[in-house]
Amino acid sequence: MRLALGMLAWASFVLAQGYYLKKARHFFIGSPLHEVPLCAIQDGEGFLYIGGYAQEKSFSLSDGWLVCSTQEGNILWQIHPGGLGPDRIEDIAVRDSVLYFCGSSGSALSHPEELPVERRSDFWVGAVEKSTGRMLWQRRWGSPRIDMSHTLVVTSYRTLIVGGVTWEDSLMGMQGVLFLLRAQDGEILQKRLWGHPQSLITKIRPVPNSTYLACLGEQRYIPFLAGIDAWGQVYWRIHLQSFRFPSRLRALSTSEDGRIWIGGQREGQWSFLCASPEGRIVWEQTWPDNGLTGEIFSVASGAHPEILHVLGWQYGDKLVSPEQRGDRDIWLSALSAEGKILWERGLGGPYAEEGVALLSKPPFSIIIAAKQNTLSSSQQGDAWVVVLEAVPCSELPLQARTSATAKERAGSAVSFWVETRPGYELAHVSWDFGDGTRAEGKEVQHTFGTPGTYIVQAIVGLKYGCAEVYLEPLTVRVSRP
């Protein structure tokens, strides 16, 4: 009977669902300049495209920054577009052989000369050849006041929808704006003001298998989610009243079944919600107050379709490891499709870090973060890339071991332990010795009082996935004393 139960447990191990996220490799991407990533995507061929801004020093005026890299960290090309004023790239998109970007530029001529250069800001959109980084076209436009583009998408009509904020009307104040541009050359085809003061548009993403796009923004300090078509017309809009200011919702993603994922911060804590394709809130999740504060910047599906990963930063005196106590540290969490928090972890070191973008290309999840490059001679800021590999629970390189010999005698202490490899962190280990007794711990000892054949089962839980895994059972034969 004990042998049969042990084999049944082993079968449960083989059929276990889920996976463990193991750090496969990490590397820096940048140059001797101080560079800060703000956005990133990965194309179908696996190449990484990162956008942000670059500075000679952390206090100098910025230029845009675009870089193309392999998943192993080999830089294929790197450019720093910009002008005499501050420029930064906020969002990027790829379609066919072209990489599109948008952001804000202080290098245009639409501002009064007496306005300090660091306060100049116009809309900035451009396109580069994604294989070489060659600039195809770029456009800057705006008003004498603040104008910023925060997000863009490529439509099926070969146009670009660009969202942001403008202050062109001094009486109206800051208000959200949408532009429709021709993707071939950036010509502005249409402009739509959001029509409300104190509003802005932060993120737009296509909804798969749908005729509209999801649009995230704020209106009178209250976040909203809207469905818009390829011309910027609004299908529906909901106000997320429970996330009232000072909440910030910055992450927006969509799934193949049309669900819309939104993440950010609510009253200092990580917050996340799921909306239906029609704009109905399905569930909301706010992390409990554990002495840490943080914000979600990016969300992506995991290696399993029912698992979501969210990325951002954390800050506080109660971080998991003392070596992570910098200004901010990278924070990653996993949720079920119903919003249950599965696990969370911090990554980083003693310097300030911030998770920016999360990319998913199963079995890999790729974190793009802003971090000080202490390995370079200049020790300036660069993009830090962490590649996490999803290892199925049925393929974990973990084994239960024992000191028992072929002639183990009753009354003698027998040692048991779990053999692990670097990169796998155990949360707990429980043992069933097959004689009605149990124990907890990675390394334990047990004494069998009577002769017999015992099936010893180790059940392990890992910190970042695979909460309960049955390892291959051990057979211990005990003879008379």
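(ticket continues) Second input and output from the same batch:
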Amino acid sequence: MSGKIALQALPMSLFEASGSRKYLNPVERRRFFHAVDKLPPDKRLFCLVTAWSGGRVSEVLALTPLAFDIDAGTVAIATLKRRKSGVIRQVALPPDVITGLARVFHLRRMQRGADARMMRLWPWSRVTAWRCIKRVMCAAGISGVAASPKGLRHTFGVSAFEANVPPHLVQRWLGHASLRTTAIYGDVVGREERKFASRMWRRRR
């Protein structure tokens, strides 16, 4: 033995050691989308695609017109945090988001252009994109570790589980290599658990 102690990686958690959440609760989520609606079209759509796709900032910034299937209402995201390159995941987006993207960025026309179809929709740096989302969080009165692009990704996972989306689909949408990583989103107290808890509270009297 070398004398070195092998440290076992701690399981991923949706909470800080202090107990702070890393995701937005339903009230904060509504406030976030309300603040997003006040942004210029390009910034508004960036925030919406990030929130509704569960994509990482770098993954959303890499999107080109060819990534969007307007008729199917989906976006193809290249997973950038995997050892194996070329892993693409397809995620459905809300119809109004797809319609907005097609109108604001002239997607159909750009998809026909040899050069235009490969251009990034948001030619920003990661810092600019991060600040955009951070400003929206501030305008929505949201602070802490959840007020970040990573917080939106966690919120996507939690919301999917609360909507009873099958775990294997959530895994694919988020681009997780292991279902064990995806399973953490099922640990958040959801509607069904709150119903059970409310029955217990009624037994106090």
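Agent notes: Residues 1-10 have pLDDT under 50 and may be disordered. The beta strands are 68-69, 74-78, 88-92. Closing as not reproducible unless the customer responds.
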